[in-house]
Design a protein that fits this description.
Layout (H helix, E strand, L loop, with lengths): L2 E12 L2 E12 L3 E5 L6 H8 L7 E6 L2 E2 L5 H5 L1 E4 L11 H11 L4 H14 L15 H12 L6 E5 L7 H16 L3 E5 L3 H7 L2 E6 L2 E6 L1 H8 L3 E6 L5 H7 L6 E5 L2 E6 L2 H11 L4 E5 L2 H9 L6
Parallel strand pairs: 3-8, 3-9, 6-7, 7-8
Antiparallel strand pairs: 1-2, 1-4, 4-5, 9-10, 11-13, 11-14, 12-13
């Protein structure tokens, strides 16, 4: 897989604040690559540099072999952006919003009509073609943002938290559409606060914290390496920790206390499950390990403002 995006020692500063602190990564053409991190970790600043709306402070960043800078219209023309904010004109219809946007890319009107019809169908908004934006649900608006991002036939799509605030049905529909685009050879860059979303969509991810990359890899591999396969959550008073840890010695690969819960991680949960049944502990949850466990272990579980 050839790299479509390459960053080396990439830095982004806002005055005295270093938002991105010397990171390096490559994104292969046709893959879905996720940037994860708590608020302020630097993932949004990184993505803004990739789609040429924020200048690079230092280091190098190339997209399709071209330097990424705010004046590079060639890169902007080959990129589609699904923004986190709903940036649609409420006074226009679905169709009119797309016609106006097509003019930004100098798409001939006849060609624009064909593309708009195709993309409205792709996001299942045919029945809302002539509805004003104010008449759409949040899920419909987000699907329309996907259609709009496709108008210029992009080689690269940046999806900035594309399912924020959506119900499960709408979220899964958008996941399906993004997977279809990837299957067509489009490169996807995803930022998200939903760990399940990253597991569903991403081939590889990076987890960022305080402007640096903590870990990079396949979601499944990161889960296996950092957590194991299974997690036991046991809510017990802290003064009982030592006794329970001793009882479960050899049955887990690690543990940590967070608030009122003691977490045990294990590579193979078969023996741990039997031991938990034997101990008959109340308030116990035994479940598969997830990417969220990795995220919280690496970035901390306390609220970051």
């Amino acid at each position: 897989m050839s790299a479509i995006i390459t960053a080396k020692d990439l830095v982004k500063k806002y005055g005295d604040l270093t938002a991105v602190d010397g990171i390096s990564f490559e994104i292969g053409e046709g893959e879905c690559f996720g940037f994860l991190g708590p608020n302020g970790a630097g993932q949004t600043s990184t993505v803004k540099m990739i789609h040429c709306v924020s200048p690079v402070t230092s280091g190098s960043l190339t997209v399709a072999g071209l330097p990424a800078h705010i004046d590079n219209r060639v890169l902007k023309k080959m990129t589609g952006v699904i923004p986190q904010e709903i940036t649609l004109d409420n006074d226009l219809t679905v169709y009119e919003n797309l016609i106006v946007f097509s003019k930004f890319f100098d798409i001939p009107r006849r060609e624009a009509k064909v593309r708009i019809a195709d993309h409205i169908k792709f996001v299942e908004l045919e029945a809302k073609r002539n509805s004003r934006i104010s008449q759409l649900s949040t899920g419909m608006k987000r699907r329309l943002l996907i259609a709009r991002a496709l108008l210029n036939n992009p080689r690269l799509i940046i999806a900035d938290e594309p399912t924020t605030g959506l119900d499960p049905q709408a979220r899964h529909l958008i996941w399906q559409r993004l997977r279809q685009l990837k299957a067509q050879g489009v490169t996807l860059i995803l930022t998200t606060q939903y760990m399940e979303e990253a597991q569903q969509l991403c081939d590889r991810i990076v987890i960022m914290y305080q402007g640096k990359i903590l870990k990079e890899g396949l979601p499944s591999r990161l889960i296996e390496d950092e957590i194991g396969r299974e997690v036991a959550e046991i809510r017990i008073p802290a003064e009982e920790d030592a006794k329970l840890i001793a009882q479960l010695e050899g049955f887990s690969s690690g543990h940590e206390r967070v608030g009122d819960t003691l977490f045990f991680y294990c590579k193979d949960g078969h023996n741990l499950r039997h031991k938990l049944v034997e101990l008959d502990l109340p308030n116990t949850v035994h479940r598969p390990a997830t990417l969220e466990d990795v995220f919280l272990k690496l970035t901390g579980r306390s609220l970051i403002e």
